[in-house]
Amino acid sequence: MDNVSQTPLMLITGGGRGVGAATARLAAARGYDVAISYVANETSALAVAADVQATGRRALAMRADSADPEQVAELFAAIDRSFGRIDVLVNNAGVLSIQSRLEDLGFERMQRIFAVNAIGPMLCAQQAVKRMSHRHNGSGGVVINVSSASARLGSPNEYVDYAASKGALETFTIGLAKEVAREGIRVNGIRPGHIYTDMHASGGEPGRVDRVKDTIPMGRGGQPEEVARAILWLASAEASFVTGTFLDVTGGK
């Protein structure tokens, strides 16, 4: 299409806060145009977009629930119109709920967590592959799924539903990587550990990282920017032979 930019485009779901926002800012600094999706906090998303534009890059901030196939399709259609390309998809959007044992988990909570954390990335990757894959006359690309150390650890007594949804995301990562490996697309996962973001407040404990930091071999929590740097490496040509794998950003936990 005529409006195809020469600048690579990175889409980050849930890009208005935390790891997603840090990734958007770093991507702009590294030369990407950036699209972000958000669900609730428009003010934060627009602030991130403004930071991207301040570096001289183009930005799109769009409200889109990644668990809704129609909203996902609209998001990608907007990217087609604005940029004419997509080079990197970062499936970062995720939710968790109040810390709880399994016996007390509600069914609607389980459904929502799997819808956003496991099905959402599949819907977004589906749209991205249709644009990136050599099978569809695309020029290739990268998909990066933001998992969690909880996929390995299980999060007992806190949120086994969240951990299980991230486990599903990791299995999807492995399968998709093999499916599109000869079509110019690399698919990898990032496993953040205990990172200082607002997400812990969703679990009812804003100070959780400080409580558990002694369980981390490095003795401290991580910063969103530290996860963002790992994401940008996986997106880059430096990781050209890396697919179907996971990069732990956990301080050794």
Walk me through the structure.
- This protein is α/β, with parallel strands linked by helices and 253 residues long.
- The chain has a single domain, classed as NAD(P)-binding Rossmann-like Domain (Rossmann fold).
- Helices cover 44% and strands 15% of the residues.
- The protein is built from nine helices and seven strands; from the N terminus they run E-H-E-H-E-H-E-H-E-H-H-E-H-H-H-E.
- The chain has helices at residues 18-29, 42-54, 69-82, 107-132, 150-153, 160-180, 199-202, 208-212, 224-235; strands at residues 9-12, 33-38, 59-63, 88-91, 141-146, 185-192, 246-249.
- A seven-stranded parallel β-sheet has the order 3-2-1-4-5-6-7, with helices on both faces.
- The termini are far apart.
- The model has no long low-confidence stretch (mean pLDDT 96).
Concise account of the structure shown:
By secondary structure, this protein is α/β, with parallel strands linked by helices. It has one domain: Rossmann fold (3-Layer(aba) Sandwich).
